[in-house]
Amino acid sequence: MPANAPSALTQDSDGSRSPRPVVLVVEDEALVAMLIEDTLQNAGYDTILANSGQAALALAKATGRLSAVVTDIHLVHGGDGRSLVRELRKSNPMLPTVVVTGFDKSAPEADLRGLGGPTIRIVKPFACDDLIACLADVLSSTNGRAPRSVSTRRAALRDGMDNDR
């Protein structure tokens, strides 16, 4: 398990133990969804999978406790990643979010401005370790911006990844 992965149980502010962090994964490509799910589970996260924005909203409402969301920016089966993040943040304005995209950061389709934070973009194809680093960055944010770890900075230089607000 990576050194920056959460422990199987996290400590709440009252000292009690809580379950592993829950990450909603929204991806319409089944193989990519399974890769993300396996990567996150191996790193110590629980995952919930959805293949559309509508399914993701229903699962988020039913779950009630999300630690973060990892979503594709372009969802074929309904909705898009930007709309999904905006809707989820109506009830949780600081929901940590990793946006996965195949678009270069300069493409209009990859524009994440106005989503708030903490939000970070990762460009496909990506290394599993870079995904874990991005998720750790948004989860550790205390000011609404995702800090960049050394491995995330390396990935940013290589893949055109970028923090956005």
Rg over CA atoms: 15 Å
Question: Which structural class best describes the helix and strand composition?
Answer: alpha/beta
What is the distance, rounded to the nearest whole angstrom, between the alpha carbons of the first and last residues?
Answer: 30 Å
Order of H and E elements: EEEHEHEHEEHHE
Mean of all residue-level pLDDT scores: 80
Strand order in the sheet with the most strands: 4-3-5-6-7-8
The quaternary structure here is single chain
Question: Which regions have little confidence, pLDDT < 50, spanning 5+ residues?
Answer: 1-17, 149-155, 157-162
Shape descriptor:
globular
Number of strands: 8
Helical fraction equals 25-40%
Count of helical stretches: 5
Largest sheet properties: 6 strands, mixed
> How much of the residues is beta strand, in percent?
15-25%
Describe this structure in a few short sentences.
The protein has about 160 residues and is α/β, with parallel strands linked by helices.
Describe the structure.
With about 160 residues, the chain is α/β, with parallel strands linked by helices. It contains five helices and eight strands; from the N terminus they run E-E-E-H-E-H-E-H-E-E-H-H-E. It has helices spanning about 30-40, 55-65, 80-90, 130-140, 150-160; strands at about 10, 15-20, 20-25, 45-50, 70, 95-100, 120-125, 165. The protein has a six-stranded mixed sheet with strand order 4-3-5-6-7-8, sandwiched between helices. A hairpin with a 5-residue loop joins strand 1 and strand 2 (about 15-20). Helix 1 (about 30-40) packs across helix 4. It is globular and about 40 Å long. The model is unreliable at about 1-15, about 150-155 and about 155-160 (pLDDT under 50).
